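Case study.
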Amino acid sequence: MKIPIKERGLWLAPLITVLVLWELVAGYIIRDSLILPRFSSVIYSIYVLKGVLIPDILVSLLHFGIGLTLAFCAAIPMAIAMGWFEKIFKAIDPLIEIVRPIPPLAWIPVAILWIGLNHYAAGFIIFIGAFFPILIDSYTGFRNVPKVLVETGKVLGCTGDKKLIRYVAFPYALPSIATGTRVGMGVGWMCVVAAEMFGVSNSGLGYRLFQKFYYLHQMDYVIAYMLVLGLVALCTDRLFRYLVEDRMFKWKRGIVK
Amino acid sequence: MNHKLEIRNLTKSFNTNSSETNALENVNLDVKPNEFLCIIGPSGCGKTTLLRMIAGLDKPTSGEILLDGKEVKEPSPDRGMVFQEFSLFPWRTVIKNVTLGLEIKEIDKEEQYRIANECIALVGLKGFENHYPYELSGGMKQRVAIARALANDPSILLMDEPFGSVDAQTRNVLQEELLEIWERTKKTVLFVTHSIDEAVYLADRVIVMSARPGSIVECMNITVARPRKRTSIEANELRERLLTLLKLHCALC
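After joint prediction, the assembly is written out as follows.
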């Protein structure tokens, strides 16, 4: 027997399966809310916490916004320079690769000493996390511009790097820049808890999760905030895809379905 | 002295590791205005290199190239080029591909569209202005590339096996259309191909090149009256002669 599946609802079945499994495992096998609270009690926690939830989301969005804006503004010019000029790439690639593996967590003391206990310090941690994916995906886009397109640009009158970048390399690299930004946004959200756990402000999803709920061993609250964090990140990702990818990259439909 | 293009003692060598190979050796060539010149030769004979140097994309090791009496030093929109590979900018629609050269020149928007529409009509793509390259067939892509080169109103049109990657039927149609465009625009055309049939059908004059080092071994005027028939006896005789020539100079390949 064939059951027609509507593609639109394709995501629903796995989601419901996981949630039901969670509820059953937590309620009948583990039966210890300190180890794994039930899904239903987590949902109830979200309801209970609704008063602090919205301000926490807003503060986290502020940190995220600062970090991501900085990362984007710093990474794009560097990506153009590294992606287009082979010598610049060779000169600074080793430097980048030394700094890149240092986890954003390790930057916390530096952030506190340099910037102090404020929103910008939290933004800085997120900046560290988001900067490298944006940089690397973007410069890869610039490095991969097909030779024939560059030469076409030249014979059509692009004299000099500035025009070639403007008319050929930049538009070619835009999808890579978008991909890098999406990956950067994901890493940025991963850094929110780290960015807020050292107490730059008395709110924020990460701050509340780590400094309040965890110390009080309120695991249902912790997991509730983890879920909220995931949902907010999902929303920003969907918004980005709606605003950028679907509108700007009509021409890619022939390449990627 | 009434030559469109003059090539004098042109030599190009490439350095591979320690050895130096001459891709082109002592090439001399004059091209008359409005002439349709085909260059044929075995692969590796440097015909593409020759065209790229005329375009300004590669630099000669020695010798000089003069277009309208001026030395060619770098790429410029007065030499239109159509590449063998599909070279449309995938993020631009057909019309935006064609206007690009004019956009770079910072010509008035209305004028850009007027010229572009004319060129698109010339290559028979009216109605496809707002399509993206991925929506076009191979033959259509090359038509857009031709329209894009023509939009800059180049002094000479350089074509590097432009129909090499389209199927045989489309190829014939494109050849006919190219001749129509050539007759209407009165451009000088330099057309690289490895197909003898194509050269005999299109050219006023065929240049035969040999490989390693690449040099011109024969210039053949094609005097068959236009419009030509592909299957005429005259054409066949010319084909036969060119084939023999190529075989002779391709013994090493």
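Observations recorded in class. Chain B touches chain A at residues 55-57, 74-77, 79-81, 83, 85, 87, 89-92, 100-101, 103-105, 132-135, 148-149, 152 (CB under 8 Å). The CA atoms of residues 8 and 28 of chain B lie 5 Å apart. We will return to this complex in the next lecture.
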